Amino acid sequence: MIPEEKLIEFNAEVKEFDKGEIIFNQNSNARNYYQIRSGIVKMNNFNDDGKEFIQGIFYKGQSFGEPPLFINIDYPANAEAVENCSIYIISKERFFQLLSTDQDIHLTITKSLAKRLYYKAIIASEISSQEPGHRILRFFDYLKEDVHNVTGKFSLKIEYTRQQISDLLGLRVETVIRAIKQLEKDGEVKIEKRKVYR
Length: 198
Hints:
four-stranded antiparallel sheet; single chain; 25% strand; 2 domains; Jelly Rolls; alpha+beta; 11 strands; Arc Repressor Mutant, subunit A
């Protein structure tokens, strides 16, 4: 996303978060731009029964939580460290100053937001109409092609747990396990030492 030297130039603070620590809460005021220096972050909500729904998972070099900055609304989800994280944080004001001085970075941020919107639209469509195996494959292909930019059969190790996949795609864990086993039989994925490769 934004080069580290540019973040530092615009007074980014580096903050450490422990695994399970909340970075910001749903409905809190959006004040900062966040970019992962190391670690993994998830954005999530919980329904009335306490079931978690994962809105997205973000990795080193990716940003998260920026859409509310552009439209002056509160965060629609929580952000939580999946593992120990180091995160660059820039105030909203400095973030907008950065964007106004560098059109290439502005375009990069715009493309990233557009990809996320596209992914959300695809997943919404998949959840409403497609079989579990198809949904899972679409999700894996999104990770492979759009997040990690890798090619080749079984070149992407899926770092998500079965529980995280079910939370992301609105499926039961048992359904995810069965569907992945069937995808392996069909030659769509490979399983080695309980890890899935696409």
